[in-house]
Structure formats: C-alpha cells, structure tokens
Amino acid sequence: MGLLGLGTVGTGTAEILLDSAGRNPLIKQMAIHRVGVKSLDKPRAVDLPRELFTTDLESIVTDPEVDVVVELIGGIEPARSLILKAIEAKKHIVTANKAVIARHGDEIYTAANEAGVYVLLEASVGGGIPIIQPLKQSLGANKIQRVTGIINGTTNYILTRMQTEGADFDEVLADAQRLGYAEADPTADVDGFDAADKISILASLAFGGRIHYEDIEREGIRQVSVTDITYAEDLGFVVKLLAIAQRDEHTHGSLQVRVGPTFVPRDHPLASVNGVYNAILVEGEPLGQVMFFGPGAGKGATASAVVSDLLNLFSLLASDQKNPLLGCSHQHYCTITPISELETRFYVRFLCGDRPGVIGHLGTCFGHHGVSLESIVQIGFQDHLAEVVVVTHDVQEQNFRDALAEIQGESARDINIASILRVL
Amino acid sequence: MGLLGLGTVGTGTAEILLDSAGRNPLIKQMAIHRVGVKSLDKPRAVDLPRELFTTDLESIVTDPEVDVVVELIGGIEPARSLILKAIEAKKHIVTANKAVIARHGDEIYTAANEAGVYVLLEASVGGGIPIIQPLKQSLGANKIQRVTGIINGTTNYILTRMQTEGADFDEVLADAQRLGYAEADPTADVDGFDAADKISILASLAFGGRIHYEDIEREGIRQVSVTDITYAEDLGFVVKLLAIAQRDEHTHGSLQVRVGPTFVPRDHPLASVNGVYNAILVEGEPLGQVMFFGPGAGKGATASAVVSDLLNLFSLLASDQKNPLLGCSHQHYCTITPISELETRFYVRFLCGDRPGVIGHLGTCFGHHGVSLESIVQIGFQDHLAEVVVVTHDVQEQNFRDALAEIQGESARDINIASILRVL
Ligand SMILES: NC(=O)c1ccc[n+]([C@@H]2O[C@H](COP(=O)([O-])OP(=O)(O)OC[C@H]3O[C@@H](n4cnc5c(N)ncnc54)[C@H](OP(=O)(O)O)[C@@H]3O)[C@@H](O)[C@H]2O)c1
Ligand SMILES: NC(=O)c1ccc[n+]([C@@H]2O[C@H](COP(=O)([O-])OP(=O)(O)OC[C@H]3O[C@@H](n4cnc5c(N)ncnc54)[C@H](OP(=O)(O)O)[C@@H]3O)[C@@H](O)[C@H]2O)c1
User: pTM for the whole thing?
Assistant: First the structure.
C-alpha cells in the first residue's frame, strides 16, 4: 500500500501495521511500499526505511506496485487530485479526510464507480468509533429516520468545560489551544464546518443519496454564553453542538441536515457525552435507537478506523471466495484464570452483634490476608444488628475469601455476611 | 432462504423482507423459500403463502433450493442438530441462538470451516446493537483488553426498577413477568445463564479463541437486595449485572470471563444504561474505549440484526467481485428541506427594558404567528435589563422568525435578543 502523509494519523496507522501481534491476522500481510510526505528531513516517530519516503506523491498514486492508497494528508488540495489520480490508476482508497469527501464526494465516487474501486472512509467521522461500516452494513435492514451526532471533539470539549467551570468561551478556547485540543485557527471546529462535513457523510450513507454541502444549515458555538448554559441547566438541559440529519415527516423524502448548538434534555443518551468524546445516535425502523460512543479523534483511535478499512479491502483482495473477516479463524480454547486468582474490588455488608471492637476485628482480619480497604463504615441497624459496609481496594479473590473465613471464625459467631458484590 | 421458526424474531425478520422499500437494495433479492414451525394451525401475523410452511424442518435444511438457513427456533435441540445438518448440506447459517453457540460452538464452527460455509450470529448478543461485526471487522486493528457488557435486558430492567422504586426483587420480578419483560421460568435470565452464553460469544471473538462454557464464573441477581442498592447509591455506585471478559494482566494470555452483579461507579459509561437497554463497552489498544448502546431484544431490533447477517451473506453470494455493501450505490442528490420549513423547539433569551407588559407583549407576538410556548419566565437582571427566557413547543422556523421580527418591531426598541438556540 502507499501511504500519503505520515502526520498524526499516518504515524498511528504505521504503528499498528508494524506491531501486528495480537491484532487481526490479516494485518501481517499489509506492507507499506511507499510513504509520501512534505518534508524528507523531519524526524519520524515510527521506524520505516528512509528509501520508502518521497515528496513526489503523484509517483505513489501511479505506482504499479501499490494497490491501495491511504490518504492522510488532509485538506482539499492536493488530496483531491491525488485521490482522483489514484482512482484513475485503479487503486482502492482509504481516507480520513472528511473535508474532501464532503465537498468533492460526487466526483470522487463517480470516478470510483467507473474504475471499479472502493473509497473507504471509516476514519473520517467519529475517529475510532465504528459508524460508517455499521451504517453501510449492520443497520442496512432499517429505514433510517434520524442520525444525531456529537461529532466534533473540540467544540464538545469547550462546551463541557464552559458548563463545569462556568468559564467563558474565549477563555476556554484559549486554554484548549494551549493544551492542543483546539487548532491555532479554530474556525473549522468552532464554526461548525467540520461537523457539517461529517454529517453530510453520515446523511449520505443513512439516506442513500448525495448531499450538496451548501444545503447544510450550519451554526457554530462562538455565540453560546455561560448564561445560556446556566439557564439550560436550570431548565433540565445541557448545551451540545449537534449535527442532525433526518427524514422530514411532512415533506416525504426530503431531508433536514443541520449543525448547531442545541439544548439536549438531561436524560437523553447524548447528554452525558462529555469532553473530547464523540457519539452518534441512529434511529430507524424497526430497530429503534442505537448509539455509538467513543474517542472522536487522536492518533491511535483514528488509526484504528483506518486499519479497519484496510482489513475490509485486504479481505476482499486476499480471498478468492471466502471472506476471512466473516469466518471463524481460531480453533483453540482460551485459558481462563482460576477464580481464586481474580483481582477485583469488593463490597461486603456485615450484620453484627453490636459489641465494641467489631470494626477493629474486621480490619484486623482483612489485614492478616493483605486485603486493603477503601472504606469501612457502620451505616445503620437492622433487627438490632449493626450494619457495617466494607469496600476493598483491588484484591485477590482467594485472600479476600480467606479473610472472610477468619472473620467468621469461631471467635465471632455473631458476624454474618449479608451480601458480597464486586465493584468495577 | 429457509426460515426455521416464525415466532417473535422470525416474524420480525419476515416483516423486514416483505417490506423492502427504503432499506438496503439487496433485501429485495432475498426470498423466503421455506418456513419451519411447530404448529401449522397457529395464526401468523405475517402474510406468507401457506404452502411454504412445514413442520418437517429437516426437509428445509437439506433442500437444494435453500442456500441460507436462518435458525430462529432457539434452545439446544433440535436447533443444534438442524444447524449441523444444514452445514453438512453446505448451507450458510444465520442464527440468533446464543445458547446453542455458547455450548456447541466448537462442533458447529469446526463443521462450518470444513464445509466452507459461514455461521453468522449478530442477533445472538445485544439484540439490534451491532457488536459481532464490529468485533470481527471494525475493531480488528486493536489488541482488545476488555469487553464489559450489560447484555441481559430482563435483569437490567429488574435492577433499574429496584433502584428507582426501592422495590424488592421478588416484587419487581413478578411485575416484570406480568408485563412480559421476564419469562414464566426466569432462571436463564435472573441466574445469569443468558449473559454467560453471550459473554462467551463476545470473549471468543474479542480474544480469538473458543471458551469452555463451564469456565465462566456466573452469578445472578436473586440475592441483590434493595439495601445494597441503596448503599451503592450512597457510595456513588449503581448495581448492574455485568458480563466481563478481560485479558489477565498478570498471567499473560489467560482470560477472566465472568457474570455477576457489580457496583458500577456512577460516572462510568455503563452506569446510565437503564431498563431493557443493553450496552457493550470494548477497550483496546490503540483505540481506547468505545461503547455500543441500544435495544437488547425485541422483535424489530433482533430482526434488524438477523437481516444484517443476511446482507453480508447475500453481498458475498451475489457479487462476483465487488462487494455491494462496501461500494457507493447511489448517484442522486437528496432534497433538503428549506430552513424556513424546519420544525423544532427553540430557546430564546431576551434582554428587555424593565417596563410593565413585556411578557404580555412577547406572548402576544408569538401568538400572532402560531408559535406556541412551553414556558416564558423572567429569570433575572443583567445590566439593569430584565432577562426573559422563552422555550417554545415544536414550531415552524419561519413562523418563529416572523414572531421575533414583530417582537423587535418599532413599538419595542428596548427588546434585544441575547441568544437563540434550538432544543432537541
Ligand atoms: N488528527 C486526528 O485526530 C484526526 C482525526 C480524524 C480524522 N483526521 C483526518 O486525518 C487526516 C490527517 O490528519 P493528521 O492529523 O494526521 O494531519 P497531520 O498531522 O497534519 O499530518 C499531515 C501529513 O501529511 C503530509 N502532507 C501534508 N500536506 C502535504 C503535501 N502537500 N505534500 C506531501 N505531504 C503532505 C505531512 O507531511 P510532513 O510530515 O512532511 O509535514 C504530514 O505527514 C486529515 O484529513 C484529518 O482531518 C485526523
Ligand atoms: N425474542 C427476542 O427478543 C430475542 C432477542 C435476541 C435473541 N433471541 C433468540 O432468537 C431465537 C428465537 O426467539 P423467539 O423469541 O423468536 O422465539 P419464539 O417466539 O418462541 O419462536 C420460536 C419459533 O420456533 C418454532 N419452533 C420452536 N421449536 C420448534 C420445533 N421443535 N420444531 C419446529 N418449530 C419449532 C416455533 O413454532 P410455532 O410458531 O409453531 O410455535 C416458533 O415459530 C432464540 O434463540 C432466542 O434466544 C430472541
């Protein structure tokens, strides 16, 4: 394959391909033949032979040895021209570039259909969250009614901090820029362009038609004030930048596609999606609601999505007949850790005769077996028995059981265990 | 295809296949050739020709006209024998039957690999939530560390009601049985067998090895008391029946697989999954955490998953080369509803000179344009201006804009709009 770009996502992708153990076995077969970058001198975090590198990206997309082109340079040009040239040369495309697809998807997909190649773009929306493939395949039985997403991590981070800290937009934006959560030029994120690119891609898949980018109603979060966020809370809402695509109930067949700051009821599944996380809620018939939640950006997460597209392509290219992604590829059994060796936290509730020194006795016995406690509290009384609740730190199940045996030993016949539950 | 079973899920599946408009175009090509049931006399909710029905299920799985067998009868026998016979006759299998896969997956997959057919089972875990295909494909780049699921709707429903109502297990179980959320014999659900079946399937996919069903540590929710749920809340937790499979950090390569009631920290993504909903959290490297949330059972949701497997099979069987599920199949553009015709709720904050009648003026103007209000409240003061917050019901954008224009008309120069946001 030919890799265009070895920045954040390109590096993450190469890291996965170079460390294939423990991942899908097909990954071992994926080799990087060429790497296109802007500067040959830049130090690279990933160990690839220098002779793979070139600044002549056109030579990659026309290289007969390359069957798949992974476009991770971003932006409109030269990404658009390179993708079109690669398609012309009958290469399959994997891209994380929502902007070029949202704005030039029409010519790209028309060219791909003519050339008989695939253009896969799982990484373009929702970072590591599988959403493109589910919309294309897993949810294909449904008539989709609506797709609602928190699909821009930067704005969700800013709104979350405005809400929790009561801080102003400008203040939080500056801090987010300092911390690397927002770009020096934040327009694409805070003015909603990025979310608009992404919802146009989701709408296109969900409703089976292309979207004119200019048709999308778009509003950013610059004008959202702390005052409104506070009133939202008083009224039972949180403010989120939502991207929504839905089939219009009145004008059959027509769609609404929009991006804007929105009051979301506190008990809505999207309301608790905070910080840089993304989530996409899909509503359809007969399915009802499903939600996909996860990291919307970042090196590893986005690369995970890029490689999932590569897996799809390689399973098609490698197999004459049987798709290795759908079959069962293992025959051995897993080794299971014996229960006595499990490590977890525990909650235990004791009912004890109310005599002095009970808590001391419990503490001592747990101590004997190396069971360290997070809390031990006498909470109340039940039927004249004192209720004592213990929460442990992570402990070995066997040690914990041994401590309980000692606690209930002959010197303490009036200590009963009312319940034991694990703690996540 | 041959359908074994036309109960809840079978009926839902047939309904999708008989109403293909607006769904993935491949669905039109799926024909039901045979239907196997227990009783020929039972009235059926779905309109299928009587001559398709038979009680001789063996004749279906050996029928040369049938290339895919959809097993939706449930239970171990005769499901197991029928699946094995179908595989022997080189039929692909789609099943929603977690029990037969968890307990006899070994012989079923071994037979399928020998026969060169697929056994697909998206519907067997998480109902309509896509989780099998994501684990097999979308997340394939990752080293999975842990899979944590709320994968039994009945127990989650019971625990949720115990928590919100402070009611006892027996009481809620009886009510759940009355309402159809729990079976007359609730053992499979409340004693954790169903969740154990499902986590063994997920563990097998996530960690690439088969699981001996007996190796799974399993505990149900019968002994969970309201007292513990209350203490959990005091300590910042909720109680959930979790199914967990994780790679052991200490004993490299060994797995922990268990089902049991567990204290879940209130801010954990799984803590807010309530009622009959299911959710599965997958943790992996380099991805981080992704969560899949949705309806874990029910006719339509489960059938959606069955048909997604059929889509995968038909795309393989139908295509010589190009996979129609991965390609782009549409060329036209979607029609977008003009913004003026959108219907949503709005939040508006006004800053007004503090004169009598302001709220009346606002109300009158909204009324003129048919904008009905959910609330209108004077909340506070800012810079000597009264702050009035309005939340509307669903209204047409154009009417709302017209009302605002009238509000700001010449008679009211001291009314400013501080912000407008949509409400979900
Ligand atoms: N970062 C994320 O978290 C994330 C998440 C989702 C999607 N994406 C998408 O992934 C794509 C890549 O993003 P990124 O963050 O990895 O970008 P990045 O870190 O800026 O890396 C861009 C790479 O492309 C190369 N490049 C840029 N312009 C070039 C040109 N004209 N000729 C040759 N090489 C050129 C750069 O070369 P040098 O190394 O020599 O400068 C660099 O290796 C974008 O479409 C982005 O929207 C990113
Ligand atoms: N229901 C859900 O929400 C759900 C969710 C996830 C997974 N599942 C799984 O889906 C499968 C089907 O569940 P379901 O709820 O649809 O079951 P169901 O409503 O009880 O339907 C079972 C169907 O199988 C037929 N059948 C049963 N035993 C038979 C036999 N020995 N010979 C011939 N036909 C037989 C029945 O025929 P008659 O109609 O003639 O009685 C009926 O049509 C199970 O594996 C279940 O675990 C169900």
Answer: 0.93
